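We modelled each protein-ligand pair independently. The example shown here corresponds to the pyridoxal-5'-phosphate entry; the chain sequence is given first, followed by the ligand as SMILES.
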Amino acid sequence: MNPSESRSDDHPETTSTRHSLDPHLRRYAARTKGMTASEVRALFAVASRPEVVSLAGGMPNLAALPLESLSEQVAELVASDGLVALQYGSAHGVPELREQICDVMALEGIQAHPDDVVVTVGSQMGLDMVTRLFCDPGDVVLAEGPSYVGALSSFAAYQANVVHVAMDDSGLQPEALREALAAAERQGQRVKFLYTIPNFHNPAGVTLAVRRRSEILEICASHGVLVLEDNPYGLLGFDGQTYPALRTQDPDNVVYLGSFSKTFASGLRVGWVLAPHAVREKLVLAAESATLCPPTFNQMLVSRYLATHDWQGQIKKFRETYRERRDAMLSALEQHMPAGCSWTRPDGGFYVWLTAPEGVDAKAMLPRAVTARVAYASGTGFYADQLGSRQMRLSFCYPTPERIREGVRRLSGVLTDEMELYDTFGPAAQNAMSGPQAPSPDTA
Ligand SMILES: Cc1ncc(COP(=O)(O)O)c(C=O)c1O
């Protein structure tokens, strides 16, 4: 028995105990060390209780979907094309859908050939496959700080080292990118790609300024670094505005990820990768070994929906809903938040990124927030290096405007108490509050 196992017997609540109870512990591959439950996922159970206003999750609001006509489409699909829709398909994806995906991407200026599109099980699978293709253990991936938690977990699963690049209200900072690349070169590290979410960033809520886009592409090209552009929110600009995709400017050095999760239905798990021709070949092989093929039925349903429904009108409805919710969140933050807090003002997407003053530890505060019946995603989960302790992601996509206002009001109360304690007792306040009496999110 190793020391950590014997220690854990004395402390039944520690992580090492959970591991020592696992009879397969010694069998796992080294890469599983990077596989830990995300803080966001751990929150789901608590945050879904009705009395808690959850500003934590990123679930799209599907209430506006035309369910009746969709159920007719499902029935028709089975009746008319069932033997194809319920059968295996190609790893590349249904040809008609790949053509339609090109029409969707054209809304952001992308001109692509359907052959270069690979349909995936959500863009999450695209992230996984691209990382699998490019990253050996120890390779560096550059990513905005903060970054999307699902991407960080894919990078960790392939043992890539994430180096964060600073952002401001105009997105990724070109100068910080230059510095990160120079530092990696000095240290002899291999940087494989820059992972970026240029539009309506998750979690930061900011958009990469158009004037920075070509500069960032030039920097990456001059260092021989690929760009992985992740764009699930690009059509959710609240004024209907779109921004030119990075892919439009450098098709040979950008791999682009798209998704129907935010503009149609996340449960169908249909996304795609648009890749330079050579990469696309490898992606199809990687996709085949992962899933044989993406679900034919779901792809054909999305294809029918795009062909027969006013999908752009539907996206407009989504945008209007999210804009109303964003407005509710921003006005409640203005009204209630204590002085010293700052936050981003997204013009699309799902998220506001809030920074609290020094002394606030958002992760330690979370159980107290849940006791006050509000949940958020604490900032550290969005960094690979434990930064972000004073920050939190507030999602406005799912709760109604009333719930959002109430949630922000509750959160402001918790933050105000926290800041008062810190002002009175200094860092000692934090230690006292995070003692055993503080309820965990699972027990509050
Ligand atoms: C930035 C970003 N990329 C990718 C994904 C995964 O989306 P999908 O449902 O297409 O797998 C999400 C989901 O929230 C996201 O926010």
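Residues 1-17, 435-444 have pLDDT under 50 and may be disordered.
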